[in-house]
Design brief:
The structure holds three protein chains of three kinds. By secondary structure, chain B is of the alpha+beta class. Chain B is built from 16 helices and 21 strands. In chain B, the strands form six sheets. A five-stranded mixed β-sheet of chain B has the order 16-15-17-13-18. Classes of the chains: A mainly alpha, B alpha+beta, C mainly alpha.
Chain lengths: ~300, ~525, ~325
């Protein structure tokens, strides 16, 4: 087990390093007078020269990559071109918001998706099953920003059931979390339903039934657990997709999270911040995948990972 | 101090005479109440509240909450003393002497001294600070030598005693007095700046009614009272600024009472409020001292031909553009906006006449029009609308202008560099209420540089420059008016710009906020606002 | 990580009413519905310019003074404008239909690019195995760890008209200069480029499974070249998987394109884009909600259609979905 863990850790680190290099090239290979975006529109030529020297902007790309990697090794993600704030500090102050949003969203959609998935599996073929499935597919097809706006306008602004925007209290998270839940939830309803159906038809369930166990016991003790495992797997790989929904939701509800930081930094051409957010998301994705992978191994040691 | 008392006394008097007054905007009839917290929002991160750095219309009213200086404006564009007791200018117009008020203290308790002003001005001039206001202070004697590192201090800045400040200029520049009313000219406590260095931004201490309590970059900013401020303004106990929401969200929050002000509302929002009888009083409008224009690069084909430039002027339907801006503003037929206390009744005018435009284009050798690029700011909806409007007008006379929307940095770099942008849409908001702020800063050929040039059309007319220089040297208001009129007339004839509109600045306020009268220079004065209980 | 055959949960609709007549692919009801929507949208998109020429449909790009009221605000539905007008006086219905041209074109082109790249990598990795497989999959994993939307935003955000000189400054090979401009081409390239990693795992898994099958072994034994095996045996058999992936991927590319346009970094104005219309219409939501609602519905419709096709096809090809 430890061996596996170390191997995975090593490869994750390699992946992150490679991501850093790849992103660096993608973002920095395009020149542009970055000095001006740092120093401000009306800075004098002397100030611009100072800025260029400070950020090594005159050096060739490979040298700058070297500088950057050394910096990374020290744990320093650089400073924003626009506000001179430390990138890691910016990300860390905003991360709790994004995390809170994601966790709340996750809870909401599990609360909805699990019972729905289980019920539709049991009630296969009924009108209930079909209606839920239609809605699930529909929810998959909603653009995040549009849904967020609609919810914000109708439920927060018109009806006043929720605050409109910002993050002054926990209540401010509910509507954004609901947006995330609706968009991602549909997929999971279908997933859980598929798994449950498969499991419910498996021989060992029939055996349990034959032994006289109640339906509820079967449902909760056997079927549920086995159906749930693939969900965790998918959850892991889904982190990257989740971030897409987060970006737009945070934007619409003005939540000060990583999503808004990422978008703002792109518009400001704030290269260190862009790099920082991309690397941070990559780290998140890799870490979650690692955890999920190990969890999966532990739950079902029969599964052999390919690499 | 005095003008304020007069204002309120007059207001009280008026208040007893007038019967039911409308809410939101009529301080005259009510006595300001101290207390409460003002909730504000900013669409993008505040770059800095440091008086040496802040230079955009949104930050400046906020900086004025933290920092004040020698001079200010009355309710219009007249200069009055603020934290100076009195001042005078020598007969030759080169020496300014100020006597400071003894009751002004910084937020950390120390009395403001003349040396603090000297320190602040030298800080702005210093290349290390990277202040966008540096150019305004170069008129001071010895400033250039200080900037170049040849002198340790600016010879023209002197503090003969703790409460006397003497400023000597190289030449009798009339407009320097306005520079002293700008936020740049605020004193900063040298020991605090020296202690924190670049971190001073997070520990701002000034002599304004408030001080910085907390600033979480990109998230929120909180201001609290400066206990040493003598008043009488600064009514609310604190200000909270939320960072990062867009116009639409801000408006929704305002209506729901989660926000007190939507600054620079878009025409769409303003119209929506204007039409709703319940919400109409929430809207305030002020004629902005600004001009939106299409600049044409006189060094690039085909805009090097004055006939082409005039054709463009005739092609544009300003009335329609104004409609696209929701009707909030006026059509622009001159460089200097009408809200500046100056007029030029004889200036040449270009009316909407597409036929004439086509004729001129034919004369210039473009019977089928031509193709060009029009640069514009992507993040400013008003400019994008104007750009699309102008693009369509030009298409009618055969000019195919491809839009190039770009973010501020890219746009700025492109249009202020020589031989880069053939034409583009931009605007200029006054720094101070004088025609030179438009004509001299933007259209003086002598100020052209290869990069970072404010004269985006690279317009170079020695005759115009002569008039502008004469006006800069003169101290006689009538003389200056005459010079500027000549200059503007020549500029209109040469048409390096196609004028579009003068916008109005629109703000929406929740009814619980009072003291929201707009100001022609500052736009709004938060320190004058107070809240219902 | 357990490899999954198809990255999409199965849906087992009740058999009644599911089967129809016609080619096997179209037998499934979901596929019929989805395909019908897509065909409808595509047809509308194709004939839109003709309709405009015949004055049945209004001009989508020309700003119309008549389309705004006295205050410069958009007009509500009615009086020749079936869905009202937008903030510059243009007909909303017409812009939504023209928007389909942008979204469907970019969506399909991006999908084709992603499928092409995904196939190339997945096939190579699965078929050849060994170090090549390892390397390619590592590379894919790296690409996968960067969220597609973030990368797309970063790329699209950088396309602000800057000049690229892809050679050392000293060489002055100016003929290689090009400008990074936002447009349909750069957009579909970006979206396709961020989407391909998602396909690789599935394709590779299929290829791996196929590689061990009898007929492939037989072909090898008979001395068939790699290329022949791939072309004649592998590709046709992974085609169903690829088609399902393609359908679902198109749904994603359309959503991505809408998202980028919403942020303002999609196809530049005055081109009509669904996402752009939503963004422009937000300030007018109270007075003219259709500017935001109509394009949103269009997006949902298009994306739903492709999702339905994908799910239906998956059902058809593999009705006993195993996980």
């Amino acid at each position: 087990m430890l061996n596996r863990l170390l191997t995975r850790l090593f490869w994750s680190a390699v992946t992150l390093l490679a991501t850093a290099v790849l992103t660096f090239f993608l973002v920095n290979a395009v020149p542009g007078d970055v000095a001006r975006s740092i120093a401000g529109a009306k800075a004098s030529p002397e100030v611009l020269q100072q800025v260029r020297e400070k950020y090594h902007l005159n050096d060739p790309v490979l040298v700058r990559l070297g500088h950057y990697l050394v910096q990374l090794a020290r744990g320093d993600l650089g400073h924003s071109y626009v506000t001179d704030q430390s990138v890691s500090e910016a990300i860390l102050t905003r991360f709790p918001t994004t995390a809170a949003l994601c966790v709340t969203g996750l809870i909401l959609w599990m609360l909805a998706a699990v019972p729905l998935g289980v019920l539709t599996a049991k009630l296969r073929g009924s009108w209930f099953d079909r209606t839920i499935l239609v809605f699930a597919t529909l929810s998959l097809s909603l653009p995040a920003f549009w849904l967020a706006r609609m919810l914000q306008y109708w439920l927060a602004f018109r009806l006043g059931w929720f605050p409109v925007a910002g993050f002054r209290s926990f209540g401010h998270l509910l509507l954004p979390a609901a947006t995330l839940a609706i968009i991602s939830g549909g997929y999971y309803v279908l997933l859980i339903q598929a798994n449950m159906m498969e499991v419910l038809n498996a021989p060992y369930i029939a055996a349990a039934r034959a032994k006289g166990l109640s339906e509820t016991a079967i449902l909760f003790r056997h079927a549920f657990r086995n159906a749930f495992i693939p969900v965790i797997t998918i959850l892991g790989t889904d982190v990257a997709a989740l971030l897409g929904g987060v970006i737009f939701t945070e934007n619409v509800f003005a939540l000060p999270g990583i999503g808004t930081l990422a978008v703002q930094s792109v518009f400001n051409l704030d290269v260190p911040m862009i790099m920082g957010t991309v690397l941070f998301s990559a780290t998140l994705v890799v870490s979650v995948n690692l955890v999920v992978d190990l969890l999966y191994q532990w739950i079902d040691p029969r599964i052999k990972a390919d690499y | 101090m005095k003008p304020w008392l007069t204002f309120f006394a007059a207001g009280l008097l008026l208040g007893t005479v007038l019967t039911p007054t409308s809410r939101g905007g009529e301080t005259a009839s009510m006595i300001p109440r101290r207390g409460g917290v003002l909730h504000l929002a900013s669409p993008s991160d505040i770059r800095s509240l440091d008086p040496a750095i802040a230079f955009d219309s949104f930050s400046i009213p906020l900086v004025r909450l933290l920092f004040r200086g020698l001079l200010g404006y009355d309710d219009a564009t007249g200069l009055v003393v603020d934290q100076a007791k009195d001042w005078n200018i020598s007969a030759d117009g080169r020496t300014y002497t100020f006597h400071l008020r003894p009751d002004i203290r910084f937020a950390h308790g120390r009395v403001v001294e003349a040396a603090d002003y000297v320190f602040a001005f030298e800080r702005i001039l210093s290349p290390q600070t990277g202040s966008p206001g540096q150019t305004y202070f170069l008129d001071i004697l010895g400033a250039q030598e200080f900037v170049d590192g040849k002198a340790p201090h600016v010879t023209g800045l002197r503090a003969p005693d703790k409460s006397t400040l003497v400023i000597e200029l190289k030449e009798p520049t009339f407009t320097f007095r306005y520079v002293l009313a700008m936020v740049f000219a605020s004193p900063v406590p040298r020991e605090v700046v020296q202690q924190y260095g670049t971190d001073f931004q997070y520990h701002l201490i000034g002599s304004g009614p408030y001080q910085l309590a907390e600033w979480r970059r990109g998230i929120s900013c909180r201001l609290q009272r400066n206990p040493y401020y003598p008043g009488p303004d600064g009514f609310v106990d604190g200000v909270e600024i939320m960072i990062g929401c867009d116009d639409t969200v801000m408006t929704m929050m305002l209506e729901r009472g989660e926000l007190d002000q939507v600054p620079m509302a878009s025409p769409a929002q303003a119209t929506q409020f204007k039409r709703d009888p319940r919400l109409r009083s929430w809207l305030t409008r002020v004629d902005s001292p600004e001009t939106d224009y299409l600049f044409m690069n006189t060094e690039m084909k085909p805009f090097d031909d004055v006939r082409v430039r005039r054709a463009v002027n005739y092609a544009i339907d300003r009335g329609r553009l104004l409609k696209l801006a929701g009707g909030f503003g006026t059509e622009a037929y001159g460089v200097v906006p009408p809200s500046i206390p100056w007029s030029n009744p004889g200036r040449p005018r270009y009316e909407f006449d597409p036929e004439k435009a086509r004729t001129l284009l034919r004369e210039a050798g473009y019977p089928d029009g031509f193709k060009t690029e029009m640069w514009c700011l992507a993040d400013a909806p008003i400019y994008m609308r104007l750009a699309e409007g102008v693009q369509q007008d030009l298409r009618q006379v055969g000019i195919q202008a491809e839009l190039r929307p770009a973010n501020f940095t890219a746009f700025d770099a492109k249009v202020t560099t020589r031989h880069q942008a053939p034409c583009g849409i931009w605007g200029w908001f006054q720094d101070y209420p004088d025609p030179s702020d438009f004509l001299d800063v933007l259209l003086n050929g002598e100020r052209i540089t290869d990069t970072e040039c404010n004269n985006e059309s690279f317009y170079n007319s020695p005759e115009v420059d002569r008039f502008l220089d004469a006006a800069a040297r003169s101290l006689d208001p009538d003389d200056r008016t005459r010079m500027f009129r000549q200059a503007e007339n020549l500029v209109m004839q040469d048409a390096p710009w196609a004028l579009l509109i003068h916008e109005q600045t629109l703000a929406l306020y929740h009814p619980r906020v009072h003291g929201t009268d707009p100001h022609p220079v500052w736009l709004w004065r938060y320190e004058r606002m107070w809240l219902d209980p | 990580m357990a490899d999954t055959v198809i990255d999409h949960p199965g849906v087992d609709f009740a058999p009644a009413g599911r089967q129809g007549t016609g080619p096997a692919v179209f037998r499934h009801r979901l596929v019929r519905v989805g395909a019908a929507i897509v065909i409808f949208l595509a047809l509308l998109a194709l004939v839109a310019p003709e309709l405009t020429r015949l004055h049945i449909l209004k001009e989508p790009i020309q700003q119309d003074q008549k389309g705004l009221d006295a205050d410069g605000m958009p007009l509500p539905a009615g009086g020749g404008y079936l869905l009202g007008t937008d903030n510059l006086g243009r007909d909303v219905l017409s812009r939504v239909i023209y928007g389909a041209r942008v979204s469907l074109t970019i969506g399909t082109a991006a999908m084709l690019l992603a499928v092409f790249l995904g196939l190339a990598v997945g096939l190579t990795a699965g078929f050849y195995g060994g170090k090549l497989d390892l390397g390619l999959m590592r590379f894919t994993e790296i690409n996968l760890s960067i969220p597609a939307i973030l990368l797309a935003i970063a790329f699209a955000g950088l396309m602000d008209g800057r000049q690229i000189h892809p050679y050392p400054a000293a060489w002055h090979w100016h003929f290689l200069d090009f400008q990074l401009q936002r447009g349909m081409v750069s957009l579909f390239l970006i979206i396709g480029f961020v989407c391909w990693p998602g396909m690789v795992r599935v394709i590779r898994a299929q290829v791996l499974a196929l590689k061990e099958r009898d007929f492939v072994q037989a072909a090898r034994a008979l001395g068939a070249s790699d290329a022949r095996i791939i072309w004649r045996h592998i590709l046709p058999n992974i085609l169903p998987t690829v088609i399902v992936l393609a359908a679902v991927n198109t749904a994603n590319t359309i959503l991505l394109e809408a998202g980028l346009s919403y942020l303002g970094i999609g196809v530049p104005p005055p081109a009509p884009t669904w996402g752009g219309m939503i963004a422009d219409g937000q300030p007018y939501f109270v007075s003219a909600p259709l500017i935001v609602i109509a394009p949103g519905v269009a997006i949902v419709l298009a994306v739903l259609a492709f999702n339905l096709i994908g799910r239906g096809l998956q059902e058809t090809f593999d009705p006993h979905q195993t996980r």
